[in-house]
Design goal:
The chain is mainly β. It has one domain: Sandwich (Jelly Rolls). It contains one helix and 18 strands. The relative contact order is 0.25.
Length: 287
């Protein structure tokens, strides 16, 4: 697993984002609505206006708004608002309508650039999740699987995470707790990279390729070993379930916690519109 498997099989799904509109038969734009975990982890409003196709790119924006009501494109502001109560944020989020076939060995490749001016308190993310739910109560357990190709935080914009989540365990009084393991990856915001995840059997592996150049192995995880010491039957449930690709930005809530998450953007600082730009997506059978 030190290099990406060569000679990947037939393409299952691909989009080069040509033209002027998003193919809504292939992608679901989430919103308008408040983001999941709004008020605790997130303070983002998900607005379809933050998702657009132009110049051969899918562009997903994060913006500040000055309003006492719902954010709209009419109240966008890079400058600080007159008070914290009137300071709102919006982002975009899209899900592929395509999911990998059950049990398939697959590869997902996404050519994208993290915003050059990614703001503290925000995150750009390219990730895939199976169809199993997160935990809904403490001490619950599900066979949720999630592979984060890249999560880039504004607090450390040149060092991202490629993370594997297997199982939602609901431990420690937190129904959203997940068994997870991650690897750090260095990159340059504002430059295009291919972000790659491969899943085969119990293995999931991550790779990066700057501008389509040489590949670097970020790391691998194995269901049944280490943090993921589950039975083979449980691993089959997690790994074989269909996976769907997600592309998004996030703005964290003021009371967000975690070692890699700042408590939201500073309302008194400049907050320019930032774009996660996606050039193309390809999902293939691995063999």
């Amino acid at each position: 697993m030190a290099t990406p498997a060569q000679g990947a099989g037939a393409v299952m799904f691909a989009d080069g984002f040509d033209g002027t509109t998003l193919n809504t038969a292939a992608w679901q734009v989430i919103g308008p609505q408040q983001a999941p975990n709004f008020g605790t982890k997130s303070q983002a409003w998900l607005l379809p206006e933050n998702v657009r196709v132009e110049g051969g790119l899918l562009r997903i924006a994060a913006r500040r708004h000055c309003t006492s009501g719902t954010p709209t494109m009419a109240n966008v502001s890079s400058s600080p608002c007159n008070n914290l109560a009137n300071t709102k944020y919006s982002t975009g989020r899209v899900h592929s309508r395509f999911s990998t076939p059950w049990g398939s060995a697959f590869e997902m490749r996404v050519s994208a650039r993290i915003p050059a001016g990614i703001q503290p308190g925000t995150r750009a993310a390219i990730w895939t999740k199976n169809n199993q739910p997160y935990c809904e109560s403490v001490n619950a357990k599900t066979s949720m699987g999630e592979f984060d190709l890249i999560e880039a935080y504004g607090t450390r914009p040149t060092l991202g995470d490629s993370t594997t989540h297997m199982s939602c365990s609901g431990v420690g009084g937190n129904p959203w707790a997940r068994e997870s393991s991650q690897h750090k990856v260095s990159f340059s915001p504002g430059s295009f990279y291919e972000w790659i995840v491969q899943r085969e059997g119990n293995w999931v592996s991550y790779f990066i390729s700057p501008g389509g150049g040489a590949y670097t192995h970020i790391g691998s995880h194995v269901c049944g070993q280490g943090e993921f010491a589950f039975s083979q039957a449980r691993c089959d449930e997690i790994m074989n379930d269909p996976f769907t690709l997600m592309l998004q930005q996030e703005v964290f809530a003021q009371n967000a916690t975690g070692t890699d998450v700042t408590p939201g953007p500073k309302a008194t600082s400049h907050f320019g519109v930032q774009y996660l730009d996606v050039d193309w997506v390809q999902i293939s059978y691995l063999r």
